[in-house]
Structure formats: C-alpha cells, structure tokens
Amino acid sequence: xxxPVVLVTGAAGGVGRAxxxxxxxxxxxxxxxxLSTEGLARLQSExxxxxxxxxxxRRPSTCTAxxxxxxxxxxxxxxxxxxxxxxxxxxxxxxxxxxxxxxLDVNLKATFFMCSAAIPPLKASAGAIVNISSDxxxxxxxxxxxxxxxxxxxxxxxxTLALDLAPCGVRCNAVSPGDIETPMLKxxxxxxxxxxxxxxxxxxLAKYPQGDRACFIQPEEVAELAYFLCQxxxxxxxxxxxxxxxxxxxxx
Length: 252
Fold this sequence. Notes:
Helix content: 40-55%
Distance between the termini: 45 Å
Shape: globular
Strand content: 5-15%
CATH topology of the largest domain: Rossmann fold
CATH superfamily of the largest domain: NAD(P)-binding Rossmann-like Domain
C-alpha cells in the first residue's frame, strides 16, 4: 500500500486506457473513473488491481465521491490525471446548446471539480495534477469553437492551479496533444466526415508539417508524457503546457 496512487478520469477511453497501463507498468496503484460501466468492467478484467468508480463527473458531488472512493481503496492520492473528454463540432450559428453544455461540462467543468476534490489529499502527498488539454487549447480550429473554448479553459486553469498550489508542493501541468488515434477520433470522422471518414482523416493530417509522412499520435505517447510529469524527476516542471502534436502548433 506504500506505492503511489493515481486517479485517472475518462479511464475507459483510448488515452485513459493507455494511462492506466503505463502507471501500472511503473508500479503505481491506479483508481479509475468513467461514465461507461461496461468500459470500466473491461478495464478491470485486464487490470484486476484497479479500483473503479462509474459516475458522471460533470456533477461536483460525483467528483467528491470519486476521490473519497479512491482514498477508501488505497489510503492516499499522489496524482490526478484528467483524461475525460468529448468532441462536438459545427459552426457557431447552428451549434446547439445541448452540445455546447456537453463539451464545456465534460472537458472543463469536470476537470475543474475533479481538481477541486483532489487538492486536499494531493496537498498531503505533495502530489501532481496532469490535465489532458489539446492543441485546440493553443490555437483555433475551424468548426470547433466550443471544443477550443473548453480546452483553452483547461490550459489556463492548469496554469492558475500551478501558481495557487506551488506553495503546497503540488505541481500542475497540461499535456496538449494533436489528433490522437482513439475511439473519439473515429467518432469525429464517422459523424462529421459527411460520409467520407477517410477524407476527414486526410484533411486532419494535411495540417501536420510532416506532409506525406504525417500520422496520428498514439495514446501511448500521451500516456508516457503524463506519466513522466507525475514522477519525482519532474519536480521542477509546473505550470507547463506541453505540446505533443508532431509540431502542428510550432508555428502558432
């Protein structure tokens, strides 16, 4: 029980699953949460030692309950990685309030209140927070105003928390990936590709500086960076927004 403990949100998703695997490989104890009970069940079947909590972290009361369950299971909390996220796109003039609320609530509100709930035990352990933001939190993406607003909020929330929590020894950093090869990316292509998912993928890859050599980021790459930021060797890194986007944001 002396091994460090990480809490991962959105754990049943592509990045979340990679995070769970990486932290377990590193000897950490892992507590997970996601809205999908089926996804968490599959995750626990692969990693039986994981703690799981199915719930809607758009509700602050759920965030509090998740952290309480993690502490009840493992007795401590050393890191929080907020990986829960959703994508909706479309022009602002026809974007629905329902989709706007979903994107802001999952991507920003849930991140805010998960941090809020986790801060007291993280102060006790001088732990770390890693928020998965996006290259869309650094520069605008066409037809993605709500998503960009949510991830821009995540990035600045991270920087503010880094300043607020530094005197307590708690570090807070953002990881900002480009397009990751996950079920969410598949959802984007199938729902917004106008019947041509491959064309949607080609349009996304066209923005990368590698040209014909461009390919999507792998979840394991994101997990590796997040894992590093939670290690004692990264103790001087806080308030950072670290790109992992194959250079797509380098010129912005």
